[in-house]
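cron nightly-structures :: item 1 of 1
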Amino acid sequence: MLGHLGFSYVGLIYLLMLWIPNTIWSKNKPIDYNSSQENKILLLFERVGQVCCTCSILFFSDFIIVPFSAWSWWLITSFFLMILYEISWIRYFVNEHTEEYFYRSFCGIPVPGASLPVLAFLLLGIYGKVIWLIASAIIIGIGHIGIHLQHLKAIKQVI
């Protein structure tokens, strides 16, 4: 349950799926985006979770793909959530770059830019039986999803 040290190519794939759209977003932020009001406690959870998730997902080798078993469904579901995450980014990039488009739900999932990767990382941690990734996903989820929900709430107050 603690995990075996070693490089994870699956972890690298997940991080690339996470970082590439975020890098593109940093150059295409919503025109009405304002991060100055973000809760500092949630921001701390987000940052700590980011570091812990990155380390956990890269440096534990328990996420490798093994012959199919019932346990494989954790990995399949996790990867499916990452595919949905990529599709939600495409939806944002082809529409107006506003906070309303950025934070709107996708396939009934609220704040998909935060909730989809957090859930994917949580399920990947379960698949690999790595408590460090499970805990890291919970930590980042508190911060990242919390911040996104605050932005969504602020948008709804304006509308």
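cron nightly-structures :: done
The mean pLDDT is 93.
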